[in-house]
Design brief:
Length: 451
């Protein structure tokens, strides 16, 4: 296990006193249900660790209760590390170093390669092919492929995690504000152009100071870059390509929504006030949204809202956006990998569990047929739910950094891109300065993956 890549904090095993109920070592245990002699299976405890908002935690508590009802000999010890993933990796590393890893845990796509190479993950390929919990043909292929890895290339090969969800990132808008401004409601199948977006965002922007209403939130750079035919890296993910004029044009356009058109909040304003709150208060007309944001919007938005595709540079261009997912992985240290896989599969694919997550506004169903029927029929916004499904099935893309062994190059880009968002550098100037450092970090990650 190459624990040096995650930092010395990983071996601070004293912190493990707070981890109760984790299983350790060994191979498969008896299956759930009854033994070969007809007697009840022995009771076991599985540990499951993740993170999440209060809504996510309460949703998973309900889903775990459903699992325990179906598998009465299994008790789940649910461990949460906070509302975000800050510190999660260090905590997980510490637990693995002490052979006290959770049986099931959240797996970020960008960690899959390193964790698999380090031997942390139980290979779920045979389980997926032969399980009785779900039919993989009824699962979003983009979601399941997020956690494949063949030892060289992510997205193909063995399955090391099951998607806890798929998070297509669409563009939400305040329907009432659009109608009041005389703006035609978007066609969910035909994206606006960038020029249309700017024109309408200008119409929706008004006021000053604390009362200012912006037409646009901070725009998705992934959408702008990808719909322009550019990317951070080349096709085989070995070269940094941010100096491509298509990339710098897209990046500058995103910056100019603040700097030139004044239709989006400045970086300082974004830091000062949560953008979800700004949208819910009617001070943002358009806002990027994933399915996990539906529940809070149902509770807090006192206006009609919907979603639309992300705009494109020119009419006829193909829209693009990212979709996210975290996985449910089984630890290679688990004493009960089969039962742990049953837990992961239940949370990811059981109909009742998926319905619980859907009704909480936490996710679109991982089950394609449920998404296409029950989800689309829900009487809660957004009305254009099909946009989420189109992203999941068609024009959504996994983030570029999930294709590389480390994300240092991408983190460095995001840190230093502040100079463009604040206007001290143009996108062209920034890209020329930043590209060599990013390439060096990418090369180091590639070399590390081969060790």
């Amino acid at each position: 296990m190459k624990i040096q890549k995650w930092g010395a904090a990983a071996v601070a095993v004293a912190a493990l006193s707070l981890v109760a109920g984790c299983t350790t070592g060994g191979g498969p245990s008896p299956t759930t249900g009854t033994s070969g002699t007809g007697t009840a299976a022995a009771p076991i405890t599985l540990s499951f660790m993740g993170w999440g908002s209060p809504t996510e935690v309460s949703t998973y508590q309900a889903m775990i209760a459903q699992f325990e009802a179906k598998y009465p000999n299994v008790t789940v010890d649910y461990i949460t590390s906070g509302a975000t993933n800050d510190g999660f990796t260090t905590k997980l590393q510490t637990m693995f170093a002490a052979h006290q890893a959770p049986d099931v845990f959240y797996l970020q796509p960008e960690s899959t390669m390193a964790y698999a190479n380090d031997g942390w993950l139980w290979d779920m390929t045979d389980y997926v092919a032969n399980n009785s919990v779900f039919d993989q043909s009824n699962v979003w292929a983009k979601a399941l492929d997020m956690f494949r890895y063949d030892g060289t290339t992510p997205g193909v090969g063995a399955i090391y995690g099951l998607p806890k969800d798929i998070g297509p990132y669409a563009l939400a808008y305040n329907v009432d504000m659009f109608k009041a401004a005389g703006i035609p409601l978007p066609d969910p199948k035909t994206p606006w152009t960038w020029d249309q977006y700017v024109t309408y965002a200008q119409k929706l922007t008004s006021g000053e100071g604390a009362n200012k209403i912006y037409g646009s939130d901070t725009y998705s750079l992934e959408s702008a870059v990808w719909s322009s035919g550019a990317d951070w890296l080349n096709a085989d993910h070995t070269q940094v390509t941010i100096t491509d004029p298509k990339f710098t044009t897209a990046m500058q356009w995103v910056a100019d929504l603040v700097l030139k058109y004044h239709v989006a909040p400045t970086p300082a304003e974004v830091t000062a006030e949560d953008q979800d709150t700004r949208f819910e208060n009617g001070q943002l007309a358009m806002r990027g949204i994933g399915p996990w944001m539906q529940g809070p919007f149902w509770d807090n938005c006192k206006f009609n809202w919907d979603i639309m595709p992300w705009p494109v540079p020119q009419a006829g261009d193909t829209p693009a956006t990212w979709y996210g997912s975290d996985g449910l992985a089984v630890s290679s240290q688990s004493a009960h990998p089969q039962e742990a896989a049953n837990l992961a599969a239940f949370l990811a694919f059981n109909e009742d569990a998926q319905r619980t997550a859907m009704n909480a506004g936490q996710a679109i169903p991982n089950l394609v047929d449920m998404a296409q029927t029950e989800y689309l029929a829900m009487d809660k916004p957004p009305a254009s739910k099909q946009v989420f499904l189109d992203i999941a099935s068609d024009w959504g893309r996994r983030a570029t950094q999930t294709y590389t062994y480390t994300s240092d190059w991408f983190n460095d880009f995001n840190t230093n891109a502040a100079s463009v968002w604040e206007g001290s550098q143009t996108a062209v100037q920034f890209a020329a300065q930043e590209q060599p450092a990013m390439q060096s970090m990418l090369d180091a990650g590639i070399a590390e993956s081969k060790q």
